[in-house]
Write a structure and sequence with these properties.
- It is a single chain.
- This protein has two domains: about 90 residues, no CATH class; about 40 residues, no CATH class.
- It has four helices and four strands; from the N terminus they run H-H-H-H-E-E-E-E.
- The chain has a two-stranded antiparallel sheet. It has a two-stranded antiparallel ribbon with strand order 3-4.
């Protein structure tokens, strides 16, 4: 039986990181559709079914190149999201020692030590200077 399954899955995409994310999102949608059976559940259950079909389509697909590109796009979006969360966490940890300001022209975030009074801040990226209270 195992050999038949391996033979069937040969040349197919299988279960990658994007599929695991889709399965987790599917479970959340199913749980929400069961909990809110009246109005919201009627909207979420068809979405659950569409996502489930998409997951199985990706899993059994033989177009490996396209599925790998989709998975790479997912990894890129995930790393962008996790990177922004990491920056928020680092700012939260450093909030007692530093203040953070955005450059008015290029929006680069600059870190300044707290308790220095009114200081002139020069952006490293574009060279714009502005005065703020630290």
């Amino acid at each position: 039986m195992r050999e038949r399954l391996l033979q069937f899955m040969a040349g197919r995409n299988g279960n990658d990181a994007l599929n695991r994310f889709l399965i987790a999102a599917d479970l959340v949608l199913l749980l929400l559709s069961v909990l809110f059976t009246k109005s919201l559940g009627r909207l979420l259950y068809p979405l659950f079914l569409i996502l489930l079909v998409l997951t199985y389509y990706r899993m059994f697909s033989r177009n490996l190149y396209k599925r790998q590109r989709e998975n790479a796009w997912y990894y890129q979006q995930r790393s962008r999201f996790l990177g922004s969360l990491r920056l928020v966490k680092e700012r939260w940890v450093q909030r007692k020692d530093y203040r953070f300001f955005a450059c008015p022209s290029c929006k680069t975030v600059l870190r300044v030590p707290r308790g220095r009074g009114r200081i002139k801040i020069v952006c490293r990226k574009c060279g714009t200077s502005f005065v703020r209270k630290s």
